[in-house]
Request: fold
Amino acid sequence: MAGDIAFAIVAIIFGVVASYGLYWLLSFLVNLLPTRISQKVQVWAFLTPALVLLIAISIAPLIQTAVWSFMRIKGKTEEWVGIANYTELFTDEKFLGILLNNFLWVLFVPAVTVAFGTLVAQLGNNVGPRREKLFKSLIFMPMSISFVAAATIWSYLYAYSAPGRPVIGLAQKIIEGFGVNEPVPVMQIDGLRFNSFLLMAVIVWLQVGYSMVIISAAIKAVPEETLEAARIDGANALQLFMRVILPQVWGSVMAVFVTVVIMVMKIFDIVLAMTRGNFNTSVLAFEWYKRYFENSDIGSASAVVMVLVVLIIPLVWLQIRTVRQQETLR
Amino acid sequence: MIAVKNFLKKTNLASTISLTILVAIWSIPTIGLLITSLRLRSEAEISPWWEGLLNPLSTVWSLEAYENSLESGMLESLINTFAVTIPATILPLMIAANAAYAFTFLKFKGKELIFAILVGLMVIPLQSALIPVLKGMVWFQKTFDIPLTGTYASAWVVHSAFALPLAIYILRNYMLSLPTSLIEAARVDGASYYQIFWRLVLPMSIPAIASFAIFQFLWVWNDYLIAFIFVGEQNSVMTYKLLRLLGQYGQGWQDVAAGSFISLVVPLIVFFALQRYFVRGLTAGAVK
Reply:
């Protein structure tokens, strides 16, 4: 144990010294060049490590994945199969169900998260700084929790006890309270994708804090004069919020919305920890995991992840556009 | 004016009540598991946790579950998680700060294009890269006989690469707000770009670096996928251990509960101690 700690400390120091040394070396090498050239290339002394890492660990592997999605790879044999992996996916009813799940996640989670976040931000703004801080900390707290820990917390809430055993899950207790006598495990109820909504509740629980923080900062920046004017004109609380505050914070609301959409598209850990994709709850990122780590099928796993990438590309475009807009405002 | 005051008072009370209800709902899941982690197996099995809440005096409280999970390897996992997390926080920040400096203060060809690619990479799912990276590492260790998979170092490198786009983006945004006149003055005095970075820009960027460090620390600490693929069983981190524990809830929920609270201690401390900086980092444009 002491050895582990010592190792960790040495590793940290080594990492910092090595990265400092690397940049020193690059800068030193650039300075050896004739001044005219070194003026032009010195920027690469700062950029090279980042670019090398990005190309080696992000960009080249992404291209490799795209290539593999057109191949069938079994052990040492590789063969080109064209779009066979994709046609298999899109003719598989199960996979279409997975796409439906991803669609439902994107349809509901961002909207609900933003709505709750705005609600809490606005209510918090009304109650005075001390209470606001307490309430907001409690709502924000789940942000620091891992998806796996959140899944554990909620799995307990959804826990199922067989008939005759004492009920320990709150969800089951509530269902019994409605007079259902022989309940099934809530995680197995897939009619109307009910169980997927139970998983979504976990993400909403985690992400409302984030949405609240961003929107709250925007609400605090709303000029006091506009509020004062509306109050004197006799606006009630709802009118004040809908007509004066909301239009002024709409940009932040949309920014949070897009961020949550991006996160939800890639949702993975919660499904892995809570249902392992069973009972029709699987999503794209989990399907990728299953096809590679359980079935060792690189070709179709790559095809699944490429479908995810293609669905996310519009958001890449949106992201670049938002950044551009911010740049012009600067 | 009196009407305005009354109006404010009324909304204040209504808001407090609604917020109290919301916060109560938000806390139920955590409270349920917290109570369970403090009970004995014999009790947690036969009575639900709200019994413990409603009749706290007739419940037997115990730390046995915590002892159990610490003995079953949670303590080693805690240290492993630190060994993965701290370098995976420092390394990308060093690299990103250098790159952000180049993007902010230096002129070079293709700057716009490279930056657009970076912004795009913030959104691309990391799953799209993981299998080739893993295969590449396996090939590398076979060819050069240097172990990579299953070591902390592989997780540091992978985490660093995936953190870079966002880190560069946030740090560059901050550096753009630094006074350029100061840097120009240093140039006139004959300082090299290298000296300006280490002596001037890096120290001035500490606030942004601190915000991103907290963000990255929590991200790596809470990550499951990369730790599962690149560190795995041998030096298992807390999320890995916890997921295995969750698979064995037949042994009693109280052990799972205690395990998950042990995994929460560090993030919660970081979070409550540094909440202000964390929030600042988030508002600076977290899109992960």
About this structure: Chain B touches chain A through 116 residues (CB under 8 Å). Residues 64-105 of chain B form the longest helix (42 residues).
